[in-house]
Amino acid sequence: MHNLISILSKPDNVPIVLMLVLTIFYTWHSLSRASKNDAQGSPDEAKLSDKVQVWPYLVKVEFLAALLVMAILTVWSITLNAPLEAPANPSLTPNPSKAPWYFLGLQEILVYFDPWIAGVTIPTLIILGLCAIPYIDINPKGNGYYTFRERRFAILTFCFGFLVLWVSLIVLGTFFRGPGWNLFMPWEEWDTHRVVALTNVDWSELFGVSTRRIDDSLNPAAMAIGAATILAWFSLGFIFYFWKRKTDIIRKLGPLRYSIVAALFLIMTALPVKIILRLTLNIKYILVTPWFNV
Amino acid sequence: MLGILDTLREKVQKTEVYKSVFRHNYQDTQRNRALQIVDNVFLHLHPVRISRHATNIGFTWGMGGITFLLFIVLTVTGVILMFYYRPAAEYAYDDMKYLMNDVAFGPLMRNMHRWAAHAMVITVMLHMFRVFLTGSYKAPRQFNWVVGVLLLTLTLFLSFTGYLLPWDQLAIWAVTVGTNMARATPLLGSEGPFGPELGMKINNDVRFVLLGGTQVGPPTLLRFYVLHCIFLPLVGSTLMIVHFWRIRKDGGISGPDPDAKKN
Ligand code: HEM
């Protein structure tokens, strides 16, 4: 309990609690508006389509919102001091060393992937993937009102990425990771000396093919298994394409947009797959090469 | 008493000075409500009339506007902090101590700057979430969504560069953890795939450029300071101008297509 209070009362963790509360509230709020709209067939927003004057109808709302935000911010700033710890000391590494809270999801992924994936490739793909959304989502419905039924796939995919892979991993990194980046329950005391035995194996070793040969050089057979597995994963995209290519959606999407959707989707879903493989089978790498590991 | 005030107001409103500033009187007429928006450089970011659903806080959550408000708060408090802060390793931490202990309203300004920064990261994420859920990135607003993604990235960079400036343990280690990633950049990092093959070493790769050294040190502090106080705010403001202008040009806040046949 003591530890939970000390995590919660860390001033820099207050925003995470705020984020969590707001995210849950707004998810519930939009889903209930969406289901109401879906149930009645025409969205509530369409009933309010008459024009009003910005002064005072909008300016009033903006003014009140600004007042409320400033009031909250002022009280927050009077009651809670920004942290200032001991002066910077490059030779004294704190344990655990945590990135700022908004990057903790990425730091969490670092447990399961090498830095070139978790720290560079995934953030780049998140940014590019977000930019691509308007161009790959060609469903014209659900523009400008809350709905779920009309855009099921889009909303489920985005919510999975945002709520599960981003927000929850931040919460995990803040409340459940302690010294040595080991897993602790939030109310558990942090034991700096805890050592977790690592019995990780590589994917090919599940099939009895060891990653390295006796002379410590990489085993081509293991590499082949790894590469084949990754190819098989991405070929799901091709299989789905040939299975569904006659459907309206796939036809309208066209091969280029379809490839981008499939690639982004398969990369995104590969994250939890690898996490589960690690947690259940202790898989470290799927593919080991002289230049990089996946 | 009120009579005197009324005559006074009438007198003042007839003066040349008053008229030169305000241009129109304050009678509650349609025309004056419109002029109130159009005659004011700040308010005229708005259209004069909008559809009623767009004034509904449950639709937009006001998140874009709150993000912008927090950006303004950060600019004001940030300028005040700059009066007391020197971005050199010898001074930075002591300046923070001084600010927190001896400057009138110093703690309030610093706290506000920090909490508004965290809050802005939250509100910008929620704003994106709202825009996604109302499908507002669809035609014709595709490009404004992309501008938004750039603004999101920029907000995170602003927050991250600012995190280093207190120059305490929290600051340098969080930034060390964050920037260590750059080592692993494919092709450009000394430990990234194909980096060593291309001649990347710890003292010439992309992380070295970012930090101005092989570890987080005084040159990093100066670099992050300049990025945080000058470069990123300028880019951010520019993008916000584009973002707001685009909202108008794309037809205002999104809403159901009025021509769609009601089913
Ligand atoms: C510094 C960051 C940002 C600021 C200050 C900002 C500000 C605003 C404001 C004031 C609006 C008006 C409606 C509202 O309040 O919701 C708006 C709308 C919009 N924003 Fe942002 N925004 C930011 C970041 C983003 C991000 C990250 C995205 C998406 C990735 C985005 C995409 C959009 C789009 C598409 C609209 C039009 C929405 C509609 O018509 O319903 N913006 N923004």
Please outline what is shown here.
The complex is a heterodimer of chains A (294) and B (263). Chain A is mainly alpha-helical and 294 residues long. Helix content of chain A is 60%, strand content 1%.
What does this structure look like?
- The complex is a heterodimer of chains A (294) and B (263).
- Chain A contains nine helices and one strand, in the order αααβαααααα.
- Chain A is mainly alpha-helical.
- Chain A has two domains: 1-43 and 51-83 and 99-190, no CATH class; 197-294, no CATH class.
- The model of chain A has no long low-confidence stretch (mean pLDDT 92).
- Chain B is mainly α and 263 residues long.
- Chain B contains eleven helices and one strand, in the order H-H-H-E-H-H-H-H-H-H-H-H.
- In chain B, helix 5 packs antiparallel against helix 7, helix 7 (106-133) packs antiparallel against helix 8 and helix 8 (142-164) runs antiparallel to helix 11 (218-249).
- Chain B starts with a helix and ends in a 14-residue tail after the last helix.
- At the A-B interface, helix 2, helix 3, strand 1, helix 4 and helix 6 of A face helix 3, strand 1, helix 4, helix 5 and helix 6 of B.
- Strand 1 (51-53) of chain A pairs antiparallel with strand 1 of chain B.
- Protoporphyrin IX containing FE is lined by residues 60, 62-65, 67-68, 71, 124, 127-128, 131, 134, 136-137, 141, 144-145, 148-149, 151-152, 155, 240, 243, 247, 253-254 of chain B.
